[in-house]
Amino acid sequence: MIKLIDLLIEQESILISRRSPEERSKNFLIATQKKIQQYIKDGGKGDLNLSNTPITSLPQGLKVGGNLNLYNTPITSLPQGLTVGGNFIGGGIKITSLPQGLTVGRNLNLYNTPITSLPQGLTVGGDLYLNYTPLSKTHTLNQIKTMAPGVKGDIFI
């Protein structure tokens, strides 16, 4: 009787992926872009979860009715006209600034990002999280409150 382990040892190539890592990454990015396009076609209702995807940009004027989750993505900038009806979860992303006029209906989480400034016209209906950011290390809480008068909730540095 032939055992599975014997087959695997003899046929090492049986476990080799048919796609290269580059091809898998490219396909994942295409699938993510299609997800965003479908979300827009569906009217921007509900949450848009893009966490742990290879997305590097978002379309201009994107309106997210629910939560926007960009946690742990390589995105480096956000588009003008971005509005988020719910929470914006951006912990671990690589942005250093936000677009002017950014509106977030609930909480804005920029935990552990390289953010160095806040834009004029920033509106946050809930709390602003700036823990472990250069901004929180170079400014006091009162200075950040002055920079972001449109934050309705608490600011955490």
Low-confidence stretches: none
Mean pLDDT: 91
Second rung of CATH, namely the architecture:
Alpha-Beta Horseshoe
How would you characterize the largest beta sheet? 6 strands, parallel
Number of helices: 4
Beta percentage is: 5-15%
Report the order of strands and helices.
HHEEEEEEEEEHHE
Alpha-carbon Rg, integer:
20 Å
Helical coverage, percent range: 25-40%
Arrangement of strands in the largest sheet: 1-3-5-7-9-10
CATH topology-level fold name: Leucine-rich repeat, LRR (right-handed beta-alpha superhelix)
- Please give the CATH class: Alpha Beta
Termini separation comes to 65 Å
Question: What this model shows, in words?
Answer:
The protein is an alpha/beta fold and 157 residues long. The protein has a single domain, classed as Leucine-rich repeat, LRR (right-handed beta-alpha superhelix) (Alpha-Beta Horseshoe), CATH 3.80.10. Helices cover 25% and strands 13% of the residues. The protein is built from four helices and ten strands. The strands form two sheets. It has a six-stranded parallel sheet, covered by helices on one side. The chain is elongated. The N and C termini lie far apart (65 Å). The model has no long low-confidence stretch (mean pLDDT 91).
